Amino acid sequence: MTDKVTTIRSIEDMLPAISQGAIGIACRSNADKMASHMANYTASMNHDDTWLVVVCKRVLLETLDGSCRTPIAGYAHHDVDGYLLETSRRGLYALDNMVAMGKDAGKELLSKAGPGFFDW
């Protein structure tokens, strides 16, 4: 549908919703042979860079007690993470660090926002 696009917004103009554009694939987790095969197959399609920033943003959203009904945008990249209440983190690009940075950033934003920020 690229012929329908009239404007491409930059990150400076408008932040995307948390994990907007990321594609997730779910499969059964029980121990039968097909579930094991599907888990291996879907794991081979994983894009580690995308997965790590999605984890970071989802932990941020969880820490803010956000959902699909809360207008919380976020952008994570190797060098950038922010929202209207801006914060950033730098650390090793690994799962434990991304989780810690997302949680810490969410706590800081909640602290900056103050009580009742999402009560509207």
Describe the structure.
- The protein is mostly helical.
- The protein has a domain of 66 residues: 2-Layer Sandwich (Double Stranded RNA Binding Domain).
- 39% of the residues lie in helices and 3% in strands.
- It contains three helices and two strands, in the order ααββα.
- A hairpin with a 4-residue loop joins β1 and β2.
- α2 packs parallel to α3.
- It is globular.
- The mean pLDDT is 80.
Q: What's the structural blueprint in terms of helices and strands?
A:
Blueprint (H helix, E strand, L loop, with lengths): L32 H12 L3 H16 L11 E2 L4 E2 L12 H19 L7
Antiparallel strand pairs: 1-2
Quick rundown:
One of its GO terms (molecular function) is hydroxymethylbilane synthase activity. With 120 residues, the chain is mainly alpha-helical.
Observed structural traits:
120 residues, mainly alpha, 3% strand
**What is the count of helical runs?**
3
Please state the average pLDDT score: 80
The fraction of residues in strands falls at: under 5%
Question: What's the CATH superfamily of one domain, by name?
Answer: Porphobilinogen deaminase, C-terminal domain
Counting DSSP E segments of at least 2 residues, the number of strands comes to 2
Radius of gyration: 17 Å
**Helix proportion range:** 25-40%
Q: What's the end-to-end separation, in Å?
A: 36 Å
Which architecture of one domain does the CATH hierarchy give at level 2?
2-Layer Sandwich
Largest sheet: 2 strands, antiparallel
Order of helices and strands: HHEEH
- The unreliable regions are none
What is the third-level CATH name, the topology of one domain?
Double Stranded RNA Binding Domain
CATH class call of one domain: Alpha Beta
Q: Any idea what the shape is?
A: globular
Overall SS class: mainly alpha
InterPro entries: HemC (IPR000860), Porphobilinogen_deaminase_C_sf (IPR036803)
Protein name: Hydroxymethylbilane synthase
GO molecular function: hydroxymethylbilane synthase activity
